[in-house]
Amino acid sequence: MAAxxxxxxxxxxxxxxxxxxxEFQESNPPQGDLxxxxxxxxxxxxxxxxxxxxxxxxxxxxxxxTIITRESATVHAS
Length: 78
Hints:
- This protein is mainly beta.
- Helix content is 0%, strand content 50%.
- The protein is built from no helices and 7 strands.
- It is globular and about 45 Å long.
- The protein starts with a strand and ends with a strand.
- The mean pLDDT is 86.
C-alpha cells in the first residue's frame, strides 16, 4: 500500500525546537475484513523520522522518545 501526503503541521518540544510533521494516509483502502474502515493515518518528520500520535495534539518521536505538541493547524496538501 502506498501512502499519500494529506497535510503537514509544525510541532514543538519542551525545549522550544520546532519540527515539521507530515501527515499521510493510505492511498488504497483496506480490503477484506477491514473494508469500510477509515484509512490509516501515519506521521513522519520532514527528515523522515517516524512519529507516533498520542492523545490530542501530542506526538512522540519514535527514535528519540521526545514528546512534541502540535502548534498550528494542518495545512492540507493539494
